[in-house]
């Protein structure tokens, strides 16, 4: 027998796709993907009844479907002041829009991109990790021009890190 022992599991009872019309819940803001063209939320994202430090984005189900008009995301009351989500590159948008049957796609929203220089606010390690993830995504979506640019940025960050 290829699997030995007992697998114990539980079902996610409260996911975006299983919310009732009129239900209000909270999702982890780290579970969303923001691009300049759309905000994506997986229909499999777990929904919590209470807001806390990690489940801090309010979501309300307005209709029976799985489209932008059937849900509302409320950034105004639950996201901490000054919290920035990363705005992903266009290649991520293209990849996610291909899978719109498993993602809620919000294309109508106001996006205010911070004027702060993220590079100076993030530690070099976090920036390096972010660039590596972007490189993986660019490679997967076959955006080789972006991948080459990211590869060079990663190399420069690694050289800078090794000199410290």
Topology diagram in text:
Layout: E1 24-27, E2 32-34, E3 39-42, E4 57-61, E5 71-74, H1 90-98, E6 103-106, H2 118-121, H3 124-140, H4 144-163
Antiparallel strand pairs: 1-4, 2-3, 3-6, 4-5
Structure description:
Helix content is 30%, strand content 15%. The protein has 164 residues and is an alpha+beta fold. It folds into two domains: 11-112, no CATH class; 116-164, no CATH class. The strands form two sheets. Strands 1-4-5 form a three-stranded antiparallel beta sheet, with no helix packed on it. Strands 2-3-6 form a three-stranded antiparallel beta sheet, covered by helices on one side. β2 and β3 form a beta hairpin. α3 packs antiparallel against α4. It is globular. The termini are far apart.
* Topology pattern, helix = H, strand = E: EEEEEHEHHH
Rg for CA atoms: 19 Å
pLDDT < 50 stretches: 118-122
The order of strands across the largest sheet is: 1-4-5
Average per-residue pLDDT, rounded, comes to 82
Count, helices: 4
The total count of strands amounts to: 6
Strand content: 5-15%
Largest sheet entry: 3 strands, antiparallel
In short:
The chain is 30% helix and 15% strand. The protein contains four helices and six strands, in the order βββββαβααα.
